[in-house]
Amino acid sequence: MINSLGRKIPAFIEGIGRLEPFEGAYAKIRKGWMDEPTIPPPNKAYLPHQSKLCKSLEEAIMRSNPHDGMTISFHHHLRNGDVMLVQTLNILHNMGIRDITLASSSLLECHDPILPYLQDGTITRIFSSGIRSELGRAIAHGLMDIPVVIQSHGGRVRGIHTGKVQIDLAVIAASAADCEGNATGAHGKSAFGSIGYAVIDARYAKQVIVVTDNLVDYPCIPLSITQNFVDYVVEVDSIGDPSKIATGTTRITNSPMDLRIAKLAADVIEQSGCFKPGFSFQVGAGGASLAVAKYIRAKMKTKGIKGSFLLGGITSYCVDMLNDGLFETIFDVQSFDAAVSNSLFTNRRHIEVPAALYANPFNCGCITNKLDVVVLGALEIDVDFNVNVITGSEGYIRGASGGHSDTASGATLTVVVCPSFRGRIPIIKKRVHTVVTPGETVHVLVTERGICVSPACGDLAQNLKKAGLMVKDIHDLEKEVDLITGVPGPLEYTDKIVGLVEYRDGTIIDVIHQIKEKQFKLPV
Amino acid sequence: MTPKTAAQAGTFESSDVLFLIEPLPEKSGRKIELFSTVLHQYGESFNKIVTEMLDDYALTDIHIIARDKGALEPTIKARLETAINRSLQNIQQV
Amino acid sequence: MLYIPGNNPAMIQQGGVYGADSILLDLEDSVALNQKDAARILIRNMMRTIDFYDTEVCVRVNHLGTPFGLADLEEIVPLQPSAIRYPKTESAEEVGNLLEIIEKIEDKHGLPHHVMTIHAMIETAMGVQNVFEIASKFPRIDAITIGGQDLTADMNIIYTPDGAGIDFARKRIVMAAKASHIDIIDTVFPDVNDEEGLRKETEYARKIGFTGKAVINPRQIDIIHNVFTPTEEEVRKAYRIVKEFRANAAAGQGVFAIDGKMIDTPVVRRAEYILQLAHVEILPEGADEKPIT
Known about the structure:
The complex is a heterotrimer. By secondary structure, chain A is α/β, with parallel strands linked by helices. In chain A, α8 packs across α9. The radius of gyration of chain A is 23 Å and the shape is globular. Chain C is an alpha/beta fold. In chain C, the strands form 2 sheets. Chain C has an 8-stranded parallel beta sheet with strand order 1-2-3-4-5-6-7-8. Chain C has a two-stranded antiparallel sheet with strand order 9-10. In chain C, 41% of the residues are buried. The chains are: A alpha/beta, B alpha+beta, C alpha/beta. Chains in contact: A-B, A-C, B-C. The interface between A and B is medium-sized, with 16 and 24 residues.
């Protein structure tokens, strides 16, 4: 099958099932309902005063019916400090469990130790929003027989509702929990803020284990995860490395290039017509994307503009803007530093939201639909404004779909910020290696060498030009950058598919092929 | 022709390339070793640049080690030219 | 004006993207003695191939009293940057000698003598004493600049953030430049992280007559632009002054008043300069005022 972006998609993948090709960002939502039936979450029963506490994670796992072919889920709110995912898989491996489907909301560098389990048949399938580091490299080299499925944060919720991902066991790490399993990330020594990605897992998993290093007296508030979904509670010494879970505060980058791009992006936003009282805004957690907030903050102060809400991955910089009175509310699905946890805990205008409310396309409207402006990064972008945030220039899986396509599809103005080239590799391509976010949901590309506006945006290009911004046709900019860097040699792939990139509506927007390691020989 | 002394130019910094060149005995030919962060994408074009410049200088018996961190073409050429100049000047001084 | 170390390819290749009015590719103090040859070749290759967009490219060469000065000129002059910046200029005689060498190189390459200009850097006590002669004698010198760090070193005093030691030099150099009708660019502010200090020093420089300031980091550019760009209020006022002046002049009236303040020729001239800085043109009667960008 060929999808609407011209990508070749197989009709069926052994171990995954029938695939549906992507037909446009709004093609499925436009109907007003989801064709796939919603599966019911499990019903459970507990007698009063029954204890959920287990002495160890092993005991809890033992009690939750581990079996071959099971699906196990995790959240990635502990980021690179997480130890629970690896510990859990070690336990399952030692029990001899095989053929596991790993459904983590994301996978980071700290999860590299599970690599051997991909080789020995312990883990045979992966659903995740992102894969990086050694795992991403190994998978791109074709380590797994069944392709990994890359989902957006909103798409993951849909996948669980439809039963595409049926979780047998969810292991939910929390920085505070009580004996009944009410749990949160808002306080405790390993505080990580919002636990938004795990809420759907708690609701749908056949068995739910809450793991905490901070068992508090009943009741644990806020009720981010509620006891009515939790089977077992385990207290451990540590759920992760606090220094890697949350840094003190997120600093705005010092990189002159990122700051320059951010300033241009802020100018674009200011001139776009979206920068007005009551506007809503989302930026990324670092680099040029976060730096845009610095310039927008200054512009809001100068012009006396007050916004409605900040959304998304929340940094302390967002919290500062809330405290400055520049925005009314923060909707927080994922928090990035310690100051954010504290704000989430104490400020009632800082609201924790689950992934479903944040970004699931199949409900009565997620918050991303209310977004005016989002600023996103890119590993690559092509002349049709399609964005790749999953595969690197060498073909490895080294990024995350995250909320990229969710927010892009919802926002009135989607701005992609990236340098025009990195380490000699051009970022603007004729065709990106892997599409994660379709060009029809991207409006403006801001690079240090020019600003490109999607032809679908009507007068925007003219308005930006009138305001003195360096607007270029994206085809021209692509050629200009190629002249600076030289045209990179093509990557070589095999026919084997190692990854499927699911669009948020469940259709397949692109596939990732196994890379062929080019044997580069220099003539003598 | 072969340079009589070893020479180097460039740095290990990003967007730069470090060239080390050293003379080889006559009729040994060229030996080029390239380490690059963008080897897959630009290895061939890098090699072409180096070969053409060596041709221009008629350097035949030479050992080159290049450690590239994504240098652009003008930088690659500048560093190699500097290394060759340094080497040739040493010949004149000897 | 953004300083870029001449042996740093990563910075040179991005020279045109930061929105600086001009960049200064430096062969002098930021390049180690044993890398001068490398920097020269690198700058030459970069200038030939990299697009710096609207940013003017200047090159600072080494002093002719060093072993590098002549070789620098031989490499750089044929490239015809917007300007060559000459360090530690101390006398008009020295400049005469420099121009002779430059013109000889230009002749050799069949290049005109009037395109590329010269910026003289004043960074010694002797230079400060001779600055008017340096600034006024040669039309090819279209800007002078002050080098604060070197000057304090030459004066055997300690550089202090308040700039007390070089205040006289600043003002004397400004006056020489004004008398010669050329640009005058202030020295760099070395602490990249001190944005408030940079703003204060730049405001002071503007107040005493400098027309620009050098920066060592792209992050400093916005603040400099901010200070040197007239405020919206200044531009509106200037606009009104110039417009009314022209209307009055057409009616044969020289001096007039706005809001009770006398407007005469010097005030009008200053207003015209502000409009020029803000790229604002006086439109014919009836047209809307151009928004300030």
